[in-house]
Known about the structure:
It contains two helices and five strands; from the N terminus they run ββββααβ. The chain is an alpha+beta fold. Strands 1-2-3-4-5 form a five-stranded antiparallel sheet, covered by helices on one side. α1 (40-48) runs antiparallel to α2. The N and C termini lie close together (9 Å). The relative contact order is 0.22.
Amino acid sequence: MVRNPVRSSNLKSVGYDLRSGQMEIEFQSGKVYRYDRVPQILHQGLLATPSAGQFFNDRILNRFQAVELKEQEK
Length: 74
């Protein structure tokens, strides 16, 4: 999945697969998580907001099932 960079002190890049509704978020720490069944509007909002970290915390974190991707999956 292609991830686009975002301006954030916590998030580094974000990718989205429209067909599956999966969103990948790469954090500044280097960890990457895949979130399942995320509505496209939330992906668009995350890219458009002036505070990607706050948007993530308010609308995505702990609301969607997530798995950390291992190095070979990134």
